[in-house]
Request: fold
Amino acid sequence: MQSPDTALYDVIIAGAGPVGLFLACELRLAGSSVLVLEKAPEPHSPLKGLPFGLRGLSVPTIESLDRRDLLNELTRRAVGRDTPAAAHWMQQQRRPGGHFAGIQFFHDQIDSTRWPYRLPGPIGSIAADMASIEAVLAIRAETLGVEIRRGCGVQSLPQSDDSVTVETADGMARGRWLVGCDGGRSTVRKAAGIGFVGTDPEFTGYSVQAELADPAALEPGRHYTASGMYTYAAPGTIAMVDFDGGMAHRTEPKRDQIEVVLRKVSGLDVTLTSLLLATTWTDRACQATGYRKGRVLLAGDAAHIHSPLGGQGLNLGLGDAMNLGWKLAATIRGDAPADLLDTFSAERHPVGAQILDWSRAQVALMRPSRSSRALEAIIRDLIDTRDGATYFAERVWGISLRYDLGDTHPLVGRSVPEFTFADGTRPAELLRTGQGLLLDFDVRPSLKALARRWTGRINYVAGDAGNRFGVTALLVRPDGIVAWVSEQAPHLDDAARAAMRWFGAPEASDCR
Ligand SMILES: Cc1cc2nc3c(=O)[nH]c(=O)nc-3n(C[C@H](O)[C@H](O)[C@H](O)COP(=O)(O)OP(=O)(O)OC[C@H]3O[C@@H](n4cnc5c(N)ncnc54)[C@H](O)[C@@H]3O)c2cc1C
Reply:
């Protein structure tokens, strides 16, 4: 490892998980030098492959990957459809759209006309394995020039006013900023003294691959029982939760113990002849009290943990990275508005809190109690209605995501719709440089002249688009979030104010 005075990186990222790698790509795309320090000596783990590594990706994640031209590569590589669990879902007559505490909602009941500010584009969810997600992101990061050092866990981080020195087992590195993307047990979060508050676990969850003496003894599918819940995909993939207060998570799962828990949860006399792979998790739900302290920031599981039920953690973390990358890079370049970096925590902390509550609500429904079974019956009825399925899809798919940017226009704070220009170009393609966009549907020279003052930060694109929701012009942030819209001939002062709000002062002071 280099001595601290030989290299000063703009950003050091602790953790080469999906969030650390995606953030590294974002920062490098926007011109920052980035060093990623990863504790594990090599990226491979059986838990990142199938079946346990399977992750559902939400609409904001799919859109983000599309906006950075990573989606095609990921869907080409990902192997999410071939698992026994996926096969079970695919064989159902109605197409499932997702679930809440295991209770499915179906595509045939989702009313997408309730989302008037969305145009056809990536929707619903796709699944991909963690190994593929990390591989695609690591390749992109290295192609962009990110340095990744594996087997280099961050141990401590003395901060000064203008930099952070990171100490690892075999040396030091220095960065202007440090971002902890080092998972739920984050060393960075603890060393920075950032609080982590929330609720204690009620259960231990198990993901198990085993050989069963009689694979037909368990019925495939998800089952609520008097003492927990289990899901079985033949011949030996099992997920189960045992309401033990999270006790078993503290020890490595063994065959005998798993057999005991499976018998308890299923109420059946099941025998495991061998244990192939097992991991445990809990429903502990905690969130960092703040996402920034001095020159240290947090993203992903380092900032928030909750039960994996409903598959939201990765999506939440990738959303953090997409929100943080361009803001931190602009701060480092020196062209960001003074409070831009503060908007990271202001926008993402409430989103995290909402997801934590979503996971807590699912736990409440799964408790092996009579009141939870009664609640489950009500949710089953509601989810099987048009209103219900649409509501759950909106929440699970991430369609309801909207930041409060202080403007009541329904497009502001939301993901830019998939407007299609006459030549077929979409905003997702235009965002691939990592710059913001000024979309001018009425092709006005004055707007073009204004955008020129932010050359390199805002890409001006003019032309008519099919459905434009009555809008004449929009300013879109590099993360694809609409920052400003005009419904009439745009007022240039308003447009300039909006550009300054998100992209800082222009090159020349006169922006008319
Ligand atoms: C069974 C299960 C199923 C799940 N299913 C879904 C799903 O369907 N959808 C979804 O969105 N989410 C899901 N999740 C959650 C998702 O996997 C996590 O939220 C996601 O992996 C978080 O990414 P991350 O990069 O923040 O952290 P991690 O993936 O934990 O990566 C952190 C990295 O930091 C490294 N590290 C740790 N300490 C240090 C250190 N001191 N210095 C340097 N490096 C360090 C680690 O080795 C690791 O590589 C699931 C989780 C589980 C357990």
Observations:
- DSSP finds 14 helices and 24 strands in the chain.
